[in-house]
Amino acid sequence: MIEHCRRDFPNEACGYLAGRDGVATRAEAMTNVHASPSSYEMDPKEQLQAQRKLREAGVEPMAIYHSHVATEAYPSRRDVTQATAVQDFFDGHYVLVTLKEAGRPRARAFKIQDGHVQEEEIQEAAG
């Protein structure tokens, strides 16, 4: 996820996190069709392909991730509006990566439902 965000800089990157039992084990990078440093929209065809791929792999979609290239990893008003439109598929879980400080990407997780933002804890896997 972090590498994808770095690769797409200076534009926002986006994708899915998937796994099992509350543990994300894979990131599915998507194309940001906006190709913009201030907004993202996932390619709809890639989304369908990724959803099929995740089902076939036996993993569950867990979160949508995207980067903020010049601001903190906190949902913008646009992020909250977009999240409300698709909250059922990911149960409102989002991971935002900030690339604001070169060489120091940071990720934060949030649950966004019905316009409300609540930060969630991220636990990194050992090893």
What report would you give on this structure?
The chain is of the alpha+beta class and 127 residues long. It has a single domain, classed as 3-Layer(aba) Sandwich (Cytidine Deaminase, domain 2), CATH 3.40.140.10. The protein has helices at residues 2-8, 44-57, 77-85, 87-90; strands at residues 14-20, 23-30, 60-68, 93-98, 106-113, 116-120. A 6-stranded mixed β-sheet has the order 2-1-3-4-5-6. Strand 5 and strand 6 (116-120) form a beta hairpin.
Helix coverage percent of residues?
25-40%
Rg: 14 Å
- H/E element string? HEEHEHHEEE
Strand order of the largest sheet: 2-1-3-4-5-6
Report how far apart the termini are. Answer: 17 Å
Q: Detail the poorly predicted runs.
A: none
Largest sheet: 6 strands, mixed
CATH superfamily: Cytidine Deaminase, domain 2
Kindly give the count of domains: 1
On the 0-100 scale, what is the average pLDDT? Answer: 91
- Which structural class should the secondary elements be placed in? alpha+beta
Strand content: 25-35%
CATH class: Alpha Beta
CATH topology: Cytidine Deaminase, domain 2
CATH architecture grouping: 3-Layer(aba) Sandwich
Question: Helical region count?
Answer: 4
β-strand number: 6
Question: What overall geometry do the principal axes of the alpha carbons give?
Answer: globular
Detail the topology: elements first, then pairings.
Blueprint lengths: L1 H7 L5 E7 L2 E8 L13 H14 L2 E9 L8 H9 L1 H4 L2 E6 L7 E8 L2 E5 L7
Parallel strand pairs: 3-4
Antiparallel strand pairs: 1-2, 1-3, 4-5, 5-6
